[in-house]
Amino acid sequence: MAEPSSARRPVPLIESELYFLIARYLSAGPCRRAAQVLVQELEQYQLLPKRLDWEGNEHNRSYEELHYVFNFLKICQSIFQSLCAILHPYLPRMSSSCSTSSNTWSCQSF
């Protein structure tokens, strides 16, 4: 039998993000039923990353909410990288570290 949520240890952020990424990976491949079961359990046991409100209070999120946020961030990253590439020639003080790699979000000016 599952333990009550109050008796469980807090899940580190990296672990809860990994659970989300595994569910997302499974849902995009042939193991969609496994992904559905995993998502149900992640939500049931509140293992997904939480969000903070403007007062610093934690709130649970659903898989769908995280999926939406993840897609929104990817869109923002893509727009930022496009703007960075467009503006780079016009900003002489901007270094070439205005990267388009998926790990770099910022243009650093020197």
Q: Could you explain the architecture of this structure?
A:
This protein has helices spanning 13-27, 32-44, 63-87; strands at 51-52, 58-59. It has three helices and two strands. α1 packs antiparallel against α2 (32-44). Helices cover 48% and strands 4% of the residues. It has one domain (10-90). A two-stranded antiparallel ribbon has the order 1-2. It is mainly alpha-helical and 110 residues long. One of its GO terms (biological process) is regulation of cell shape. This is BRWD/PHIP N-terminal domain-containing protein. InterPro entries: Bromo_WD_repeat, BRWD/PHIP_N. Residues 2-88 form the BRWD/PHIP N-terminal domain.
Features:
single chain, 110 residues, mainly alpha, two-stranded antiparallel ribbon, 3 helices, extended, disordered C terminus
Shape: extended
Question: How many runs of DSSP E, i.e. beta strands?
Answer: 2
Order of helices and strands: HHEEH
Query: What count of structural domains?
Result: 1
| Helical amount | 40-55%
CA(first)-CA(last) distance: 58 Å
**Percentage of β-strand residues:** under 5%
Read across the widest sheet, the strand sequence of neighbours is 1-2
- What is the structural class? mainly alpha
Radius of gyration: 19 Å
Biggest beta-sheet profile: 2 strands, antiparallel
Distinct helical segment count = 3
What are the low-pLDDT stretches, counting only 5+ consecutive residues below 50? 102-110
What is the arithmetic mean of pLDDT?
A: 79
Protein name: BRWD/PHIP N-terminal domain-containing protein
Domain BRWD/PHIP N-terminal: 2-88
Pfam families: BRWD1_N
